[in-house]
Specification:
The structure is a homodimer.
Chain A lengths: L1 E7 L10 H8 L3 E5 H7 L7 E5 L4 H13 L4 E5 L9 H7 L6 E6 L4 H9 E2 L5 E5 L7 H13 L3 E5 L9 H9 L8 E6 L7 E6 H5 L7 E5 L5 E3 L2 E3 L8
Parallel strand pairs in A: 1-4, 1-5, 2-3, 2-4, 6-13, 7-8
Antiparallel strand pairs in A: 8-11, 9-10, 9-11, 12-13
Chain lengths: ~240, ~240
């Protein structure tokens, strides 16, 4: 059987990984992934054969994973967080029709919306949107419309890829857009290096967030109108206490 | 130390649970939760003391978990999926100020958006919204606005609680609202009993989804304008192939 597992490893440490993810890595012949993610997993499986590629090589990486599976090896392609949320699962299925003999199994993991929320308190106990600020693959005007529409509908918002070297001011731009709709006092949160060295979190207002530095290892949370700062935790009530 | 873990167990089986969730359950004195979720976990920990409550007893359950922790027992409160996404984490933090000695730790899990997506293919590889159709705690006009705004912004949408006995026609109503904005051919998916007996999934159009029966064990996915049905899988391209 020719088999390819596309696995979300969660934030990075073993404790945030599911048993299914662990088994898919333990049982494979070759571990494939972006160098940074392979490095997170490799110490747990020191004897595992590895094929790793750099960033921006997504198509090559997925093509290679399918080719290796086609050759008869059992392959596990690892992604950080959940393999289906901004992960490689979609690209694998786009390429899959050229590899009809390869059986694909997606193994989901804990995405940064969940792991970051746990660090900050409970910002996502009600409806929310997940939006990436990277305009590498999405025009900025679409991102802007998504921010505005989500805020106007009272959704909490999780921002993935809030900034990078090249996009140093993107979080600031997003906050400026959101403040057209939301008050500057809106409760927000920022989670850094979730599940890794240097893990930290901070609850602050939208106005403060605007002037906060972020990088690609941050996940940002914008509260809705009911979100509160309770003793330093970011909490969106679900409404049970009003029933 | 007085400690309360609020744990997401994922879909229900051990393989979808994280190592941290397992350890929090294994290490606690008393397992607390809604009867149905306790029943999913209990066979894995047959000797564990249990305090379970029925549905709609959320405040009582969380209050009791905090009281038990206050008395010096280590408590683990279990939720299905992720404890922070429509889970008990928020209510625990709302009640927590009355129990200042209790240390709270949220342990996130794989939510139905992730586990359902893995079953259907890769519907969430781009921006998306998560919306509950339950109007028990949210007025319907807010839900309607969230559906419209999300669809207009080109977000994929995940519907939690798409229907119940009392709300038999809610998925139909939601589809009718979405079809004001989205074409009937929009690719959609429905995942049933994820990670449990009777697990199944189906990829279909929005028009077909409108006439499909759903219940409280379903999670529903609405694609965006780029979402495709590739050999029976629901796939939202992220755009890597266009770079």
């Amino acid at each position: 059987m020719k088999k390819l597992y596309v696995v979300g490893i969660g934030p990075g440490e073993k404790e945030g990984m599911t048993f299914a993810a662990w088994e898919a890595i333990a049982g494979c012949d070759i571990l494939v992934g972006y160098t940074k993610y392979v490095e997170l997993v490799k110490p747990l499986f020191p004897d595992k054969a590895v094929f790793q590629t750099g960033m921006m090589k997504e198509v090559d990486r997925c093509q290679k994973a399918l080719e290796l599976a086609q050759s008869g090896k059992t392959i596990t392609l690892v992604c950080s967080g959940d393999s289906g949320i901004y992960g490689m699962a979609g690209l694998i299925y786009e390429l899959a029709p050229s590899f009809p003999e390869v059986e694909i199994k997606i193994v989901s993991g804990v995405t940064a919306a969940s792991s970051g929320a746990a660090l900050l308190g409970a910002p996502l106990t009600h409806d929310f949107a997940v939006i990436s600020l990277s305009d590498l693959l999405t025009p900025w005007d679409k991102i802007e419309k998504r921010l505005i529409n989500s805020a106007e509908a009272g959704l909490s918002i999780v921002l993935y890829n809030p900034a990078s070297h090249r996009r140093a001011d993107y979080l600031q731009r997003a906050c400026d857009i959101l403040m057209r709709v939301l008050p500057g006092e809106t409760v927000c949160g920022i989670a850094r290096n979730i599940g890794r060295d240097g893990e930290s979190s901070q609850v602050l207002t939208l106005a403060q967030l605007r002037d906060t530095e972020a990088d690609m290892f941050c996940t940002v949370f914008i509260g809705n109108e009911t979100t509160k700062n309770i003793d330093g935790k970011m909490v969106t009530p679900r409404g049970y206490r009003n029933v």
